[in-house]
Amino acid sequence: MRHTISLLVENKFGVLSRISGLFSGRGYNIESLSVGETIDPQMSVMTIVTSGDEQIIEQILKQLNKLIDVIKVVDMIDLDHVEREMVLIKVSPRQEDKAEVLRLTEIFRGRVVDSGPKTYTIEVTGDEKKIAALIELLKPMGIKEFIRTGKIAIAREKVKKPST
Amino acid sequence: MDIFSEFWVKLYNFPKGVKRRMKMNGAEILIESLKREGVKHMFGYPGGVVLGIFDHLYGDKDIQLILTRHEQGAVHAADGYARSTGKAGVVLVTSGPGATNTVTGIATASMDSIPLVVFSGQVPTMLIGNDAFQEADIVGISRPCTKYNFLVKDVNDLARIVREAFYIATSGRPGPVLIDLPKDVTAAKTEFVWPQEVKIRSYHPTLEGNKWMITQAAHLIAKSKRPVIVAGGGVILSNASRELKEFAEIADIPVIMTLMGLGAFPGTHSLSLGMPGMHGSYYANRSIQEADLLIAVGMRFDDRVTGKIDAFAPHAKIIHIDIDPTSIRKNVRVDTPIVGDAKRILAVLNKVLKEEIKEQWGEVRKAWLKQIQTWRKERPLTYTYSDEVIKPQFVVEKIFELTKGDAIISTEVGQNQMWSAQFYKFDKPRMWLTSGGLGTMGYGFPAAIGAQLAHPNKLVIDIAGDGSIQMNIQELATAVINKLPVKVAILNNRYLGMVRQWQELFFSERYSHTKLDETVPDFVKIAEAYGAVGLRATKPSEVEPVLREAFKNKKTVFMDFVVDWKEKVFPMVPAGAAIDQMLFEEHKEKTEKKLKAVK
Question: Which candidate among B11, B184, B388, B429 keeps its CA 20 to 30 Å from the CA of B519?
């Protein structure tokens, strides 16, 4: 089962290697990892996508919690949340496919951020499914290269249901 | 001191005799911080980038630094000091090779949750990353085997970091902490400010157990007909022996102790079943397999304890008390987890049992305790004595007999360690120093040196093998020069005995690279060359006289016991088998048959 784990950590040197070292040292798998500062520059948020059975995920969460530089660990599976990832895709379509590439970009609410004589570079954000779908559609038109940021996730505001 | 400086001392917590706003360099701050932490002894080895610190230790009356002959020895010595006292062991070494030589010692302490604070020198901050002379990324290297580590980049952080390091090392589940000290940081000057308290926002170990869970546990105990307690090193680390004894006696529950837990409960107590697992007693393992309730306290279900995990304690509900949440449900299923400090949890549990449950257990437990007694009679821990050749177990038994259990025993790793665990009965905690988790050969001798330094009037004995002792034999110099009367009993079988035993049992007696034979040095001469005393026994009748002479002697003594090389550690659970599928000392054919059956 795939889990998205959000970590609030100290923004110090060496923290990333403590976390990645924990995963590699214990044989856990990292599918993606992204890091960025929070509104308080002394803290960062890491979003890690990992997978494993229930017992492994429980160990991962506990082991992360045990690290001294980790302030808070949240398994997003427990929360209603929004996930996003950004991808940059460089396509080199044949002349007859160019229009289709641009049309797809528009349908997926992407943008062309660079264009050359042979290639378009498309920027698109979305959840996993949307990005996978776009990549599938663009594949036949010749993707030269693509690069993704890794997933980030944020919990939705808890809305109290009005009592009737 | 005038009234004003007294005021400043109080306000800023300046060291005694230090005038207000006096600046100190990093080395002085370090030493002053160590004094504030109550450090009296440390172990180390000098070198280029720590010369400044060593210079400030020169002639210091409050802190004694013991020069070992290898940095690994320094860390094991600090570890032995820590295990025997409960205080953090302190080490100071130089950069590069000095630092990398500490890694085995740090990993040993980490696996057994021993509090250490290790200071390593580092090249000046300007040179870090330049592959400078004697530079090693020790913060990177030690990351997976420390509880935490620091690189001090600014002298203003130094006192706070030292304070935090001691706090982290000794609180929660203890462990080693490393502080890397660049040369320029220890030379830079600043005001000394000792932090009044430690605040780490992301580190709050759970100490109090959940009361509801404890009550659940008490009810499980009340319902249980065949309970066993399995106590681990955590009981010793949290100084919970008294509470454990009370618990076992209130509810009449037999106690099994893991290798790390020996001494947590009196080994001579009628409820003690000794050690479980690979070389545990038959009756301990049988009790686990037949139990309907297993109460694990401060132990982590190591594979050497559980054997084949799916077949472990098949009928038992499991209550697991541990300070480290990651230990719970890591290896085995747990019915009632209780996270917190063993001492506090057991105290609450005892109270609940006494005040809320108020059961009279005597009758309920009778059948169970009688059953265990039958197993104990069926398969006692034993060996075959010989008149001709010294049996290693006989030496350990004699040591126990002569010391009456009142000695600090350290061991190396292998057969010597298992025989000591089986045949020496520990009645008190912190008397047993052994590398359980990592299994570090060469641990015992320096650990004994550290323990002897902390307990100058106690008898400290390292039970060693001829292989292991050679891994840190250079520490003879440390023991002799510091007049530390450590006794080393070498069970000399001219083999790497435990590996040889496996080769005999599982590799058709192909003794690949385990025969030391004529290359085993003359330990008597080695001891004498270092200025220690060397004694030898080759016949069983010589064992006791040699031990008596050694224990009488005020010097460091090496005792070379030339023992039966064929002797094996039994009982034994072959790797991967269930813990009740044990091999015993029997006729060879029988063992072979059994091995086949297990396979």
Answer: B388
